[in-house]
Amino acid sequence: NVRVVVRVLDENDNAPTFPTPIMSIEFPENTPRDVKRTLNPARDADLGRYNTQRYSIVSGNVNNAFRLSSHRERDGVLYLDLQINGFLDRETTPAYSLVVEALDGGSPPLRGQMTVNITIQDVNDNQPIFNQSRYFATVPENATLGTTVLQVYATDQDAGENGQVEYAINRRQSDKEQMFRIDPATGLISVNKPLDFETRELHELVVVAKDRGMQPLETTAFVSIRVTDVNDNQPIINVIFLSDDATPKISESAQPGEFVARISDVYHANVMEVADPGTSVIQVTAVDRDEGNNSAIVYSLLDTPDTHSHWFQIDSHSGLITTRAHIDCETDPVPQLIVMAQDNGRPPLSSTGTVLVTIHD
Q1: Distance (Å, rounded) from C-alpha 335 to C-alpha 166?
Q2: 46-56 as b/e, with b when 16 or more CB fall inside 10 Å?
Q3: At which of 196, 228, 260 does a domain end?
Q4: Which terminus of the chain, N or C, has fewer Cβ atoms within 10 Å?
Q5: How does it sit in the membrane (predicted)?
Q6: How many angstroms separate the CA atoms of 42 and 121, rounded?
Q7: Which pLDDT score, from 0 to 100, does residue 244 have?
Q8: pLDDT below 70 — which residues of the chain?
Q9: Is 124 exposed, middle or buried (0-12, 13-18, 19+ CB in 10 A)?
Q10: Contact residues for 116 (Cβ-Cβ < 8 A; gap 6+)
Q11: What's the number of domains the chain is made of?
């Protein structure tokens, strides 16, 4: 008998094969460099140098964000890991699709491929950003409650709740009186309480935009709201006495009951019967808290013939009342004048005061 031993020599007739053509993995965007994920290795039925020898990334590796590492274990399989090679940023590149190739040691080598889809998970690493650092708006002082003043707008590049923005007014730093409110979802700022130009013309708000992350990030913007004047104040008449120091005076020869001074809507003045036309009697002044034409005041005397108002005239700009004609104590010893102060608003507002002129014989 002859024993024949036949040795079968291996030929490179099998290519490396991955168990699945597509594999999906995830990395948080703040994953440190060199962190690895295990990938499915390729297997090759051939032996020795015809087995899987190396791996490479063929395409999809934007900015060389990843690299491969491998090691062979006792079972002869060349195991594969994917490692972070740079810095991940979901806002710049939210996903990668790598084509990984396995090569054996043949000449030429045989190849097998697998696609690795990588999703970069969001981390709350971006604060909201306003489209303006400072906003300006105007609102009339008679604006009704709920009137919209302006809208602020901020964006956040993060995803999900990390990118959802809520708005608020920083009450510790601004608008403690809560004259305005802001819609937390839309950023619309509206009137919350009655406004008054004469009390406060400018309101400065500090508006906060905050995301809804587990550790929320925020940013601020400044809003300047100027209240514009509306003709809502009528003139208030005062009196300037025509003494040398503009104060009421009385002679030591004054009789009991003679007028000294009074704070009222009724004012008193004295004039001699022999006074010539054009003699100064008294000057009235009115103050209007509005501005511009709304506070420009014109004076006039109302026509009251029964009280002999035609004996007098008033300067429309200064409010100085003078005699227009000769006056007669016997006809009317105390003529009564009605002074009207009217502003130039639209519509105009006015106020009146009464001046009692005592004529001395």
Answers
A1: 69
A2: beeebbbbebe
A3: 228
A4: N
A5: Single-pass type I membrane protein
A6: 27
A7: 52
A8: 8-10, 231-265
A9: buried
A10: 22, 23, 24, 25, 39, 82, 96, 97, 98, 99, 100
A11: 3
Among 67, 94, 121, identify where a domain stops: 121
346-360 b/e (C-beta count within 10 Å ≥ 16 → b): eeebbbebbbbbebe
SS3 label, residue 328: coil
- pLDDT score of 259: 42
Query: What's the gap between Cα 271 and its chain centre?
Result: 61
Identify whether 15 is part of a domain.
no
Q: What is the pLDDT of residues 272-328, one digit of tens each?
A: 888 889 888 888 888 887 788 888 889 999 988 778 888 999 999 888 899 999 898
Rounded to whole angstroms, the Cα distance separating 62 from 53 reads 25
Give the torsion through C-alpha atoms of 80, 81, 86, 87, to 10 deg: 140
**Residue 166: which of 178, 147, 182, 180 has the closest Cα?**
182
